[in-house]
Amino acid sequence: MAAADDLRPLVDASAALLRATAHIAGQGSRRILGAPVRPVVAELGRQVPARTSARRFAVLLEQALTQSSAEAEDLLLDALVRGLVPDEARIIAALAGRAWSPLVHVEARRDGEEHLGLRNASLIGRQAGIALVRRTPHYVTRLLATGLVVATAEREDRGPEYEVLLAEPDVLDAIRGAGRGPLGPRIRRGGLELSDLGRELWAAQQTMERVVERSV
Question: What domains does the chain contain, in order, with CATH numbers?
Answer without folding.
Answer: 85-215 (3.30.110.190)
